[in-house]
UniProtKB/TrEMBL annotation:
Residues 1-21 form the signal peptide. This is VacJ family lipoprotein. The keyword Signal applies. Residues 31-42 have a biased composition (Polar residues).
Length: 287
């Protein structure tokens, strides 16, 4: 495949789940880390490459601080809410192509029919997906990717792995990312500037939707690296088991951290938080 056409596929799913935790750490945590001289490390059998992973996350945090977050704030300020929502819906509709393929690979035939119905309805009546008409017809949105498909086939995830730009993942997730990228129809549009531009726009839209979640993550975590790692494992396990992960498994690396970072809810919670902030700011000051 022409590398110039490879655009982020699975990365967007990961970013939606943990992007809120990928912003700046609080000043207190930064001061504690600086005074210690080195970041805190904790033994975790899932994370034998922790040294590399922390360095890659630090690079991604810098990229977010100095580029993604400012651009996302500008986009959120400039774009009307209906435009922001329409762009999100459009990319969600494109994702349904890959979702349908993975439905079939996992032999989820009923879900395949539902997702095919979503794609047809939203692509036609919903004006290429900018309006989520399928949601009003009780056709639920599902989240399937090739990483989940490989998991259902019994392929082990391997160690936790953070890559520059791509973010949290695993060796199996890298293969899944490649598969989802290949299934994205936008990547085959020429010239190559179109898929690259669409991918960039998608990142900005996602990051803007997650700005409020960043504050939640910063307040909830002492070691943000562990927070993101645990959130990643919980979110992936939630999706792989279709919302019913085995209760006996430990996804917090022994820390017992309970987080609700499932993909289906995180975007809505971020949007609600942002709307609440807007309402609070609009309230007149009391005399």
């Amino acid at each position: 495949m022409d590398n110039s056409r490879i655009m982020p596929g699975r990365l967007v799913l990961v970013f939606m789940a943990v992007a809120g935790a990928a912003g700046c750490a609080s000043d207190t945590v930064k001061q504690e880390t600086a005074s210690a001289g080195t970041p805190p490390t904790h033994s975790d059998s899932r994370d034998p490459w922790e040294g590399w992973n922390r360095g890659a996350q630090s690079f991604n945090d810098g990229l977010d601080d100095y580029f993604l977050k400012p651009v996302a704030k500008g986009y959120q300020w400039a774009a009307p809410k209906f435009v922001d929502k329409g762009v999100t819906n459009f990319f969600s509709n494109v994702d349904d192509v890959s979702v349908i393929a993975n439905d079939l690979l996992q032999f989820k035939l009923v879900q395949t029919g539902q997702d095919l119905g979503r794609l047809i309805v939203n692509s036609t009546i919903g004006m290429a997906g900018f309006i989520d008409v399928a949601d009003k017809l009780d056709l639920p949105k599902h989240y399937e990717d090739f990483d989940q498909t490989l998991a259902t086939w019994g392929v082990p995830a391997g160690p936790y792995l953070v890559l520059p730009v791509i973010g949290p993942g695993s060796p199996r997730g890298v293969v899944g990312f490649a598969g989802d990228t290949a299934a994205n129809p936008i990547n085959y549009i020429t010239p190559a500037s179109i898929p690259w531009g669409a991918g960039a726009g998608r990142y900005v839209d996602i990051r803007a939707d997650m700005l409020s979640a960043t504050k939640i993550a910063d307040e909830a975590s002492v070691d943000r690296y562990e927070f993101i790692r645990n959130a990643y494992f919980q979110q992936r396990n939630y999706l792989i088991h279709d919302g019913n992960p085995p209760l006996e498994e430990d996804f917090g690396g022994g820390e017992g951290i309970e987080m609700e970072f499932e993909l289906q809810g995180v975007e809505d919670r971020a949007t609600e938080a942002r709307e609440k902030e807007g309402k609070d700011e609009a309230k007149p000051a009391s005399p």
